[in-house]
Automatic annotation (TrEMBL):
Gene Ontology terms for molecular function: ATP binding
InterPro entries: AAA+_ATPase, ABC_transporter-like_ATP-bd, ABC_transporter-like_CS, P-loop_NTPase, PstB-like
Top-rank taxon, per record: Bacteria
Record-annotated membrane-spanning stretches: none
Keywords: ATP-binding, Nucleotide-binding, Transport
NCBIfam families the UniProt entry points to: 3a0107s01c2 (TIGR00972)
Designated name of the protein: Phosphate ABC transporter ATP-binding protein PstB
Species this chain originates from: Aciduricibacillus chroicocephali
Length: 259
């Protein structure tokens, strides 16, 4: 199987022979994967197959877990993140992350979005105002919150919180946004809004999304990687994976026969 997902133009990540252990338990095996820039890549597979673990390797968040060990290469912006000393603050500026539940800080809407730029030293109020407005606009939230930017972010609805977290992630103008089941806690209406947003965001950002929702993967992703038992079983253009997969396990999973 080729590591390239279909005909790849420009890659954001090249992952090579990535293995990962939690203590003695191996969770990822010889992962070979290229992730295209400015596209949406969906990571699918049954519960426990290593999707979230893989996603968390891409921004080295996995390193926080005690007794975790990784070998191999994750090449990003010309560096192997696993072998070179990586400045995590800088890396997080380039790679934003969205989780299952919107998790805003207990601060105002404004301060949530301004958080990243401030960490990177921006103090100019006018510039911060512009970034906050721009990020909230790109996250399709500005109109709903523009009159209450000083209110607590915790007063927002679940769907609004998730869009706020997206605004917070894009405020540092990252290259990549990682999303771990970003709509699984949302109602259908909020899910649609976030999906529409993802399709808009891919014009500017590389998006990698873990999803259990196969219809979602089919609707919004350009490419899909199917994981099973810690291995990449098949990768390819989403249309092909969903209409004519090469591997039997992929076909069985997407047709709902397990998982
Ligand atoms: N912090 C951890 N410590 C030890 N083992 C872990 C840890 N996190 C995950 N694992 C194990 O690694 C394997 C992969 O888990 P992971 O959460 O990556 O799977 P997943 O495909 O994202 O699952 P789900 O769809 O249920 O979220 C599982 O066997 C899990 O028990």
């Amino acid at each position: 199987m080729s590591s390239a997902i279909g005909s790849m133009v420009d890659t954001a990540f090249k992952v090579h022979e990535l293995n990962l252990w939690y203590g003695k338990n191996q969770a990822l095996y010889d992962i070979e994967l290229e992730i295209a820039k400015r596209e949406v890549t969906a990571i699918i597979g049954p519960s426990g197959c290593g999707k979230s673990t893989f996603l968390k390797t891409l921004n080295l968040m996995a390193r926080r877990v005690p007794n975790l060990r990784m070998t191999g290469e994750i090449n990003f912006q010309g560096k192997n993140l696993l072998s070179e000393k990586t400045d995590l603050v800088e890396l997080r500026k380039e790679i934003g992350m969205i989780f299952q539940k919107g998790n805003p800080f207990p601060q105002s809407i404004y301060d949530n979005v301004a958080f990243g730029p401030r960490i990177h030293g921006l103090r100019n109020k006018k510039e911060l105002d512009t970034i906050v407005q721009d990020s909230l606009t790109k996250a399709a939230l500005w109109d709903e919150v523009k009159d209450r930017l000083k209110d607590s972010a915790l007063a927002l609805s679940g769907g609004q919180m998730q869009r706020l977290c997206i605004a917070r992630a894009i405020a540092t103008n990252p290259e990549v946004i990682l999303m771990d089941e970003p709509t699984s806690a949302l109602d259908p209406n909020s899910t649609n809004r976030v999906e529409d947003l993802i399709l808009e965001l891919k014009e500017k950002f590389t998006i990698v999304i873990v999803t259990h929702n196969m219809q979602q993967a089919a609707r919004i992703s350009d490419r899909t990687a199917f994981f099973l038992n810690g291995k990449v079983i098949e990768t390819g253009e989403t249309d092909k994976i969903f209409s004519n997969p090469e591997e039997r396990a992929t076909e069985e999973y997407i047709s709902g026969r397990f998982g």
